[in-house]
């Protein structure tokens, strides 16, 4: 009886994932909380293979805060502390990541330069409600992209604002690439990153990082609206002992995401 029950549960879970992949009904899967990352919880048990069961598009980081994570087209890349990029291994783990099956409902092409703020204004006009999530992808030629990447940390871990104090920054000029990210509602601050959170990788897949600024020369914007959020909370000692509601959480996240 127990074996049959297990198989039945696995079948239902597989059918649920299959449903969301083919109906386009948006759902975000998230492992851990941004406030945990801010507090220095840099170890998780969720693997890259696990993430791809919940989405084909997203972003996050790796255990020990070892670079930035960008995912699209069912592939996950690690954007490293030296500005380089590589394919992530299936067994690498993450302390924080956000994934979805990307189902763009809105697409717009630009044949003239657009700043990051101008593109965000376009997205805000196309999806005016801040009460749902947007998955955002930009493919194109960029005049420049400015990024940063947190270097790998070692125990005992410092809080994130201390860890990023000396983070390296990089600038990619006249480059083609992909930006993948989310616009999250303001009410999710601390759970997620409220507002825009974007990562970049070059078309050669050799460089990238967490986006600080960019100017698009020409390219295509795709937006998928997402109305469901599923959070998988860790149960390890560092998460259970973390301060997830500090007084300065909004300012801390804004500083971390600059």
Name the descriptors.
acetolactate decarboxylase activity; 60s Ribosomal Protein L30, Chain: A; 24% helix; Alpha-acetolactate decarboxylase; seven-stranded mixed β-sheet; decarboxylase; 258 residues; Acetolactate_a_deCO2ase; disordered N terminus; 7 helices; six-stranded antiparallel β-sheet
Give a written overview of the molecule.
With 258 residues, the chain is of the alpha+beta class. It has one domain (25-256): Hypothetical protein, similar to alpha- acetolactate decarboxylase, domain 2 (60s Ribosomal Protein L30, Chain: A), CATH 3.30.1330. 24% of the residues lie in helices and 39% in strands. The chain contains seven helices and 15 strands. The strands form three sheets. Strands 6-5-4-3-8-1-15 form a seven-stranded mixed sheet, covered by helices on one side. Strands 9, 10, 11, 12, 13 and 14 form a six-stranded antiparallel sheet that branches. The protein is globular, with a radius of gyration of 18 Å. The termini are far apart. It is an enzyme of class 4 (lyase). Pathway: Polyol metabolism; (R,R)-butane-2,3-diol biosynthesis; (R,R)-butane-2,3-diol from pyruvate: step 2/3. It comes from Salinivibrio costicola.
Proportion in helices: 10-25%
Q: How many domains would you count in the coordinates?
A: 1
Strand content: 35-45%
Q: Indicate the radius of gyration in whole angstroms.
A: 18 Å
Pathway: Polyol metabolism; (R,R)-butane-2,3-diol biosynthesis; (R,R)-butane-2,3-diol from pyruvate: step 2/3
Catalytic activity: (2S)-2-acetolactate + H(+) = (R)-acetoin + CO2
GO molecular function, one term: acetolactate decarboxylase activity
InterPro entries: Acetolactate_a_deCO2ase
